[in-house]
Amino acid sequence: MGVLGGLLIGAACSRGVVRPPAESVRPTNASRSTTIVVPSAPTPVHVGPRNAALSDRDLDALWERQLMVPVAGMVRTSLHDDFTAKRGSDRIHGALDIVALRFTPVLAPDDCVIGRMFAGPIGGIVIYATDVTSHFVYYFAHLDGYLRGLAVGDRVAKGSVIGYVGTTGNAPPDTPHLHFQVMKRGLGRVWWDGPPINPIFFFAVDGSRR
Ligand SMILES: [Zn+2]
């Protein structure tokens, strides 16, 4: 088993948090057609080191997104918190590894816009997407492949299939998983590389494809 596989098995586990479902309410202004989702629970705590660029308002805004677990069939209580797992001597993982069978559909955790798609030696086949307010970036790595026809600029709804779990890049070949990272959007050209946020307690919905 590779290094990552060992970390997956040995990762500190933080599970069992179950929150009441969010309340969906219609705005009183009848001219508006969108549904406003009001979280019925307070903003969760951020577990692990928190970049100084992340404000309480950022975390409130992330909670308002009511994220879905981005793997089909994956429930919140089965996630492992490996956000702080060591990567080398001076880095932490800064993401969650969600282990699932190869080819399990990877889902949009939010209504979002596809921002970058490419393949590289580390992340393998990857997607970067932003939420529709462009406040956050969602990063998906080690995909086996993309949903056929997916393209940069596409707007996708929460729960839509965007790709499939795999082991591309430096993932252990015997441990298919989705490397999922949430970041605050960075500035300028490196918008896709902002400070990471631990999403472990920020999922409001289990993974369910639409
Ligand atoms: Zn990872």
Count every helix, treating DSSP H or I runs of 4 or more residues as helices.
2
Q: List the helices and strands in order.
A: HEEHEEEEEEEEEEEEE
Bound molecule types: zinc ion
Gross morphology is globular
- Percent in strands: 25-35%
What is the averaged pLDDT score? 87
CATH superfamily: Glucose Permease (Domain IIA)
Q: Output the radius of gyration.
A: 16 Å
Portion of residues within helices: under 10%
Care to count the β-strands?
15
CATH topology: Glucose Permease (Domain IIA)
Structural class: mainly beta
Number of domain units: 1
Overall CATH architecture: Distorted Sandwich
Q: Biggest β-sheet, characterized?
A: 9 strands, antiparallel
CATH class: Mainly Beta
Span between termini: 35 Å
Q: What characteristics describe this protein?
A:
single chain; about 210 residues; mainly beta; Glucose Permease (Domain IIA); 9-stranded antiparallel beta sheet; about 10% helix; globular; disordered N terminus
3D structure, described in words:
With 210 residues, this protein is mainly beta. The protein has one domain: Glucose Permease (Domain IIA) (Distorted Sandwich), CATH 2.70.70.10. It is built from 2 helices and 15 strands. The strands form 4 sheets. Strands 6, 7, 8, 9, 10, 11, 12, 13 and 14 form a 9-stranded antiparallel beta sheet that branches. A two-stranded antiparallel sheet has the order 1-2. A hairpin with a 3-residue loop joins strand 4 and strand 5. The radius of gyration is 16 Å and the shape is globular. Residues 1-33 have low confidence and may be disordered. The structure holds zinc ion. Zinc ion is lined by residues 93, 95, 97, 179. Residues 93, 95, 97, 179 line the site of zinc ion.
